[in-house]
Amino acid sequence: MAKLRGIRGVKIPVSDLSASIDWYAEVFGFEVGWEFADADGVVRGVSGHVGGGAAGLSLREHPEKAKAIAGFDPVNWAVETRRDLQDWIAHLDALGIPHSPEIEASIGWLLVFSDPDGLEIHVYTDEEHGVDHADLPGYGRRVGMAG
User: Fold this and answer.
1) Which CATH superfamily is domain 1-68 in?
2) What is the pLDDT of residues 67-107, one digit of tens each?
């Protein structure tokens, strides 16, 4: 099989490009590096990085697609520890952004909140809690994985 290095970036459809740029900048430190204009010259997309270069992010103005995936969680953003998750809770509280409480998820701890279009944002710890929730509905269980 051909090798992958990782994920270059995530592309998210949005209904209001300007508002989403501002929101992702405030919440994730999004820095725009590229913009994409249609044939009519109107910028309908941007690309850049979040978290000081930790991950690539692209936003594309597609209101119908943004509406279609509202409530879905296509990306789990990673933090190392439970303490880092607490820092995220404090960050969101300071911004006045509603969020879940800390959740003891399948492997680690999880925080859930939504972007302006209702896309669920998940922030998940690399740190594991060691509790087996495999018998609970909606929780994962390990299958066929090494390590």
Assistant:
1) 2,3-Dihydroxybiphenyl 1,2-Dioxygenase, domain 1 (3.10.180.10)
2) 999 999 998 999 999 999 999 999 999 999 999 999 999 99
